[in-house]
Specification:
Blueprint: H1 4-19, H2 23-31, H3 35-44, H4 47-56, H5 59-65, H6 71-81, H7 83-92, H8 95-102, H9 107-116, H10 119-130, H11 136-139, E1 146-148, H12 153-162, E2 172-176, E3 182-187, H13 188-193, H14 200-203, E4 211-212, H15 217-227, E5 231-235, E6 241-246, H16 247-265, H17 278-305, H18 307-312, H19 316-344, H20 349-382, H21 385-415, H22 425-446, H23 448-451
Parallel strand pairs: 1-2, 4-5
Antiparallel strand pairs: 2-3, 5-6
Helix pairs in contact: 1-3, 5-7, 6-7, 8-10, 17-22, 19-21, 19-22, 20-21, 21-22
Length: about 450
C-alpha cells in the first residue's frame, strides 16, 4: 500500500529523473511497481511532467498502468501519447478492457487501429464492440486455452505448457470438437492425476454450465454466486466457444456497476471523481438538479394553494418538514431494497406481487408505529387531539405512499427494459414530497373546523 509520504517521495523522484533525462532508470522504476501504484504516481504529477512521463515510458508499462485508471483518463492518456504509440498500447490491453475503451474511442482512430491489427484479432475486437453493454459478450476475454477432445492427456499438458502465459482460466481446460463446439471441461487437477495416454473425452465433465454472448450481467452474477466459478465459458448462439468470463473481470464489472448505480441514485455523473475539475463536475451534475428544481416548484404551488389553511392553523407548518422528510426516506429505502433485489434474483409476476405485498405490510407497520408516536407528540405539544390525529393519519398515509412509490417505480422501469437505478433517491424524494404535501393539507382542510 503506497502511503502519502511514500507517494510524495516517489513523485519527486520521477520529476527528478525526467528533468535529468534518466529515462532508462524511470522505466526500470515503474516496471517494479504494481499497476495501481503506477497510476497513483502518474495522477499525482503536474500535467507537464505527466505528459513527459507518458512519452518516455515504454508501451508495456503504460498498458499495465491503464488497468487502474477510469475510461476518461485512458482516453486522455492515449490522446497525449499520439496515434502511433497509442495503437501499440491498445494492442497490449486485455480484450475486456480494450473493447470497453474502444466503444468511446474516436471513429477515425478506431478504424486505423483495427486496420493495423491482424485480421483474426480485428474481427474479434469488432464483434466485442458490437455486443451491448452488461452482456456476456462485452465482459468476456479471448485469452483462454481450448483443446480438441479427441487428444490425449499428454497432448493437453504439452499445449497448456506452451500457452501458459496466454491463458487466463487457470483451473480448467475447455474441450471442443473439430467445429469449435464446447463439449466439456477438465480440471487441471484431473489432468495431473490421469494416465498420460488417456483420451480427454473419457475424463471430461460433460455437463458444462456456460452462457451465451447475449446473457445479461445479472444472470452471470447469480451463476458466479451459486457455483463459485473462477471462470465461466461463453458460447455463441450455436454453441461454439468464443470466450470466457474470469472472476476478476466479473468483480471489476460489479464494482463498476455499483459505482454507476450509486451515481444514478444521487443523480451525479459516474465520471465524477476526486480529480474532476469543478466546472466539469458542475456541468455533469447540473441537468438533473435543474429538473428537480422545477419539479420542486410544484411543492411550492401546493403550499400556496393551502395558504388559508396554514394561516388559520400555524402549527401545521411545524410538521411539514417531518412529513415530507419521512416520506422521502421510506421511499429511498424501498428503492434500495428493490434495486438490490433485481440485481440478485430472477423476477417473475409471482415474485413481484409477493414483493409489493411485503412492502405494503412493512409500510403499514412503520406507518402505524410512526403515526401513533407523532400523534402523541403533537397532542402533548399543542394540546389539540385533532392536530395529533391529522399529523398521525397524514404520516401513516404518506409513509404507505412513499414505500409503494419506491417499490413500484423501479419495477415498472425494469419491466420497460430501463435501468431501475434511474429512479434515483432525489427523484423519489421530490415526487414523494408532492404526494405528502397534498395528503397532509387535504386531511388538515377536512378537519379545519376542529383545528381552529
Amino acid at each position: 500500500m503506497i502511503t502519502k509520504q511514500k507517494l510524495e517521495e516517489e513523485t519527486l523522484q520521477v520529476i527528478e529523473k525526467l528533468q535529468n533525462e534518466k529515462f532508462a532508470e524511470l522505466n526500470e522504476m515503474f516496471e517494479k511497481k504494481r499497476p495501481y501504484d503506477m497510476s497513483v504516481i502518474f495522477q499525482s504529477l503536474p500535467e507537464k511532467y505527466g505528459i513527459s512521463l507518458l512519452h518516455n515510458l515504454d508501451e508495456t508499462t503504460i498498458a499495465s498502468m491503464m488497468q487502474k485508471i477510469n475510461t476518461m483518463q485512458k482516453l486522455e492518456v492515449l490522446g497525449k501519447i499520439g496515434p502511433e504509440k497509442a495503437n501499440k498500447v491498445l494492442a497490449l490491453l486485455d480484450t475486456n478492457i480494450l473493447t470497453r475503451l474502444l466503444k468511446k474511442y474516436p471513429q477515425v482512430q478506431l478504424k486505423k487501429f483495427l486496420e493495423e491489427m491482424d485480421e483474426s484479432n480485428a474481427s474479434y475486437v469488432k464483434s466485442m464492440i458490437d455486443y451491448p453493454d452488461n452482456t456476456a459478450g462485452s465482459l468476456m476475454s479471448n485469452r483462454y486455452i481450448s483443446i480438441e477432445d479427441n487428444l490425449t492427456v499428454q497432448d493437453a499438458i504439452d499445449k497448456i505448457r506452451s500457452l501458459a502465459l496466454y491463458g487466463e482460466g487457470n483451473n480448467h481446460v475447455y474441450l471442443i470438437d473439430k467445429k469449435g463446439f464446447l463439449t466439456g471441461t477438465v480440471p487441471y487437477k484431473e489432468l495431473l492425476l490421469a494416465d498420460p495416454n488417456e483420451m480427454l473425452k473419457n475424463i471430461m465433465l460433460k455437463q458444462v454450465i456456460c452462457v451465451t454472448t447475449t446473457t445479461k450481467r445479472d444472470h452471470i452474477v447469480r451463476l458466479f454466486k451459486r457455483y463459485d466459478f473462477t471462470a465461466l465459458p461463453v458460447t455463441n448462439e450455436d454453441g461454439v466457444l468464443v470466450g470466457i468470463i474470469t472472476f476478476d473481470h466479473m468483480v471489476d464489472a460489479l464494482i463498476q456497476e455499483a459505482s454507476d448505480d450509486y451515481g444514478k441514485f444521487s443523480t451525479a455523473s459516474k465520471e465524477i471523481d476526486f480529480n474532476t475539475k469543478p466546472f466539469n463536475a458542475a456541468i455533469r451534475r447540473l441537468p438533473w438538479l435543474v429538473i428537480l428544481l422545477f419539479i420542486g416548484l410544484i411543492s411550492g404551488s401546493i403550499i400556496s394553494k393551502f395558504e388559508g389553511t396554514l394561516e388559520k392553523v400555524v402549527a401545521l407548518a411545524f410538521f411539514m418538514p417531518l412529513i415530507a422528510g419521512m416520506t422521502g426516506n421510506t421511499g429511498t429505502q424501498s428503492l434500495a431494497v428493490v434495486v438490490r433485489g433485481l440485481a440478485e434474483n430472477e423476477i417473475d409476476a409471482k415474485t413481484v406481487m409477493k414483493l409489493i405485498f411485503r412492502e405494503f405490510r412493512v409500510s403499514l407497520i412503520i406507518g402505524v408505529s410512526c403515526g401513533l408516536l407523532i400523534s402523541i407528540i403533537a397532542f402533548i405539544w399543542q394540546g389539540n387531539i385533532y392536530l395529533g390525529l391529522v399529523v398521525g393519519c397524514s404520516l401513516l398515509l404518506t409513509l404507505i405512499l412513499g414505500t409503494m412509490a419506491g417499490t413500484v417505480i423501479p419495477l415498472i422501469l425494469y419491466k420497460c427494459k430501463l435501468d431501475p437505478a434511474v429512479a434515483s433517491g432525489p427523484l423519489i424524494t421530490t415526487v414523494n414530497d408532492i404526494f405528502s404535501l397534498i395528503t397532509y393539507f387535504s386531511i388538515a382542510s377536512f378537519f379545519l373546523s376542529k383545528l381552529t
